[in-house]
Amino acid sequence: MNVNEKQIQDLIREGEGITTEFKTCRNQINRDVYETVCAFLNRHGGTLLLGIKDSGEVQGVDHDAIQQIKKDFVTAINNPQKLTPATYLSVEKIEINGKTLLYIYVPESSQVHRCNGRIYDRNEDGDFDITDHTVQVARLYQRKDASFSENKIYPWIQVADLRADLIEKCRNYVRIKSKDHPWAGMDDLQLLQSAGLYLADPFTKESGVTLAGTMLFAPDQLILRVCPAHRTDLILRKVNVDRYDDRDLVRTNLIDSYDRILAFIKKHLPDPFYLEGIERRSLRGAIFREVASNMLIHREYSSGIPARLIIEYGKVTTYNANRPHGFGALNPDNFAPYPKNPVIGAFFREIDRADELGSGMRKMMLYGKQYGGADPQLIEGDVFQMIVAVPEFGENPANIPETIIGDDSGSPSSPHQVTPEVGTKLALSRHQVKILRNCRQDSTLLELIAITGRSDRTKFRNQVLNELLDIGLIEMTIPDKPRSSKQKYRITRKGEELLESST
Fold it and tell me: Is the whole model's pTM more than 0.85, yes or no?
């Protein structure tokens, strides 16, 4: 979760509370930091700021100690001897008035955690040990069970009932991410226990695979036995708007479901050129990676409502069963991420199928308008909705008003045409891409116009050709005589690099 200096200053000004804790940590990490992490996980989550006194005075962390503190923290919270179940959190550096702080966001967990074998909870006065308070411990477990269905334990489902090939597939994913990842050396049961997917019931003492573990790794028949309503309905509806043009009904594990959602998106949505600096970025990939993971991570699996993703002309809309923490449109400027299925979410982040909590949504908002011409909409309710504008390069079969879908005019209403900021960001229309490819051979103006199917020379120059000239993707063969009857156009080295980076 990315934060800025102003947000940190606001937290410091408000002082410590049930969701905010300050620690000095000048040269090394304080031992009680892990107790606070445990308490935040068990209560409602919170923010840890290292380098600040209890009074709110910004002391800072010694620069030479930062890397060791970060390493010690990550090692400890991944160590089941220190924190059980282990968790996965990131540490960010923040500069305040020339001093370095370390920022740690701890989301609420769906499980009960222990630090050094003790259970900690949180109140306004700080962290407190409730291990020996039987009633408080029972209430904590009951609250978690009531809030998070992903932790339901099925004693009749054991590791042998799961797909070993899927578990190994995920083990390979984390090896690619980090060859020293703890899961790489664990057997299947140890991996599931480490990920919080195999638990013991605190009251009956029976152990089994959880709902989350079942949804991730079970064979399809076993998944549908546990969750009969589980399905992700992928629909393309542009020509036949009463039914559909294409459909994929996904009723399988969450790992393969993720891949099939992205494959359906790739099949039916364009991915126009977009440069960030000198590197090409896939806007479609950045946006719909978040859409796909959001649909799977934040779904309420105890609900009978199926999930849907519908591609229509100019937009994609998703519908997801939800346990809401508010109603109405989310504002990305003051949005506080809330994990609906923290265990599934953490697992997806470990196998690199999701971003840190909150950052994926911010990426989607950042690139959404560049991709589709309008900011994505996220609407909280019993059914969570996402609406993402998408570019359209063909004719409008449903006769949607042109003010919504735009055209090749290069106007702000055109979702696939973004005015470039030279040297920083660039998206090209389909006509400009055609011109670039053709200009590998010297071409006349009439030849280029014919390629695009246009007839108006003035509009072609203003809307297509001049922009490519201005940003140096093509050049004139006779630059001193722009209007020469022998004038031709050819691609530049910069244009060639752009085409090469897109393949």
Answer: no
pLDDT digits (tens, 9 = 90+) for 438-488: 888 888 888 888 887 777 788 888 778 887 887 888 899 988 888 888 889
pLDDT digits (tens, 9 = 90+) for 33-45: 999 999 998 888 8
- Give residue 401's pLDDT band: very low, low, confident or very high (50, 70, 90): very low
Q: How far apart are CA 287 and CA 365, in angstroms?
A: 8
The residue whose two tokens read 């995920």 is 170
> Would you say residue 414 has pLDDT above 70?
no
Q: HEC string of 267-330?
A: HHCCCCCEEECCEECCHHHHHHHHHHHHHHHCCCCCCCCCEEEEEECCEEEEEEECCCCCCEEC
Tell me what the pLDDT averaged over the chain comes to. 82
Domain covering 428-502 in this structure, CATH number: 1.10.10.10
Q: Which residue has the tokens 């380098």?
A: 51
* HEC sequence for 101-144: EEEEEECCCCCCCEECCECEEEECCEEEECCCCHHHHHHHHHHH
Residue 464 DSSP symbol: I
3-state secondary structure (DSSP) of residue 233: strand
| Lookup result for tokens 């068990």 | 42
**Of 112, 183, 95, nearest to 146 (Cα)?**
112
Helix 342-350, helix 254-268: angle, nearest 10: 70
408 pLDDT exceeds 60? no
DSSP letter at 94 equals E
DSSP 8-state symbol, 155: T
pLDDT value for 311: 94
Tell which residue, 361, 378, 493, 374, has the closest CA to residue 436: 493
**Domain segments of the chain: what residues?**
1-146, 148-227, 232-389, 428-502
- List the strands of the sheet with 232-236, edge to edge: 246-250, 232-236, 307-312, 315-321, 383-389, 377-380, 328-329
CATH-assigned architecture of domain 232-389: 2-Layer Sandwich (3.30)
What is the rounded average pLDDT of the residues 284-304? Answer: 89
pLDDT cut 70: percent of the chain above it: 88
**In CATH, what class is 1-146?**
alpha beta
